[in-house]
Amino acid sequence: MDAKEKLLLWKTVMALQAVDALKTSAKAIEIAKQNIEGTLSDDALLDECAGLKNEADIVAVRMFVNIIQNQFSISQFELVQIRKALFSDLVENPELLRVSNLAKKEWALDGLSLLYPKAAKIKTQLNKLFEAETLFDFKGMDSKKIIKHYASFISDLWALHPFENFNTRTIAVFFIKYLRYRGAPLSNDVLAQSAVYFRNALARAAFCDGKKGFHKTTRYLERLIKKMLLGGRAVLDPRETHLFYDPNGVVLKVEGAPQKELSVSDRLDEKLLAAKKETAKKSAAPKAPAKKAPAKKAADKKAPAKKSAPKKKSSK
Q: To the nearest 10°, the Cα dihedral for 248, 254, 256, 262?
């Protein structure tokens, strides 16, 4: 993996901490900088976690290490191993599936709660989902249908919420590795710039309340995946995923300020480019002071126009 690919992946794993309202510190950015520049090897990254105390820093480093590993399978085993790799020592028994029933409020749902499947059914539903995906045939499908399938698969997986916590970051890593497995590796910073949008899109894909006129929709996930894979100028604003978003600018029903992305992309870029900018400043030749135009001689100045004498009134 070259420096450009590493920069892209570091941006992504750091930004994904925002799905749980966390933010990486300057220490993690320094670790990423050293790794990108080659002064800190990939093999030494996990050792750096021993000196980190911030959850977002630890998980970001572990995400990076896990994603660059080549092994992957579409299976429950793979999903569990990812969670164990990311959250070991941060949660008890990270390999265990959820044993309690969950209901969780979401910003995109205007504070309403998602009702996840009962814990007793998770293992069976996971096995069915992974088995169906393993056997799925993409032959003859155009890009639009493929993107729709990707969105459907990952939203169905997230909607199970198979663990007690840390589901979104676990599934985000699984999703990135899944895309690589399908031959569509991460090649831009769309996910890094749209981590909050990603979580909101997953929530909308899982939410249904027919009485209030709301139904499950993967259109937001499809927009995200389309931009990740095909590019384009589509703006992925987290606010548009809200149940009561109005494109004409009407204030959302939800109380409080509109949700914003918590991306570290710009901070990471600044850290990596700071040295180059400083070098460029030193090497740049100082500009010569602008010459003042010579003052005009008094003789050259035009005399002010004489005022004409007022005309005398003629007597009648």
A: -80
The Cβ-side half-sphere exposure at 242, using a 13 Å CA radius, reads: 22
Do the beta carbons of residue 228 and residue 190 sit within 8 Å? yes
Give the containing element (helix H, strand E) for 22: none
Q: Note whether 178 and 225 are within 8 A (CB).
A: no
N- to C-terminal Cα distance for the chain? 104
> Using one digit for the tens of pLDDT, what is the confidence trace for 178-229?
999 999 888 889 999 999 999 999 999 999 988 888 899 999 999 999 999 9
User: Looking up tokens 């390999």, which residue turns up?
Assistant: 95
Q: How far apart are CA 92 and CA 82, in angstroms?
A: 15
Distance, C-alpha 124 to centroid of its chain: 31
Which residues make Cβ contacts (< 8 Å) with residue 43, sequence separation at least 6?
none
Q: Which amino acid is at 213?
A: G
Residue whose tokens read 């497995």: 181
Question: How many CB atoms are located within 10 Å of the residue 140 CB?
Answer: 6
What Cα–Cα distance (Å) separates residue 48 from each residue in 1, 28, 53, 223?
20, 9, 11, 36
Predicted TM-score (pTM) of this structure = 0.81
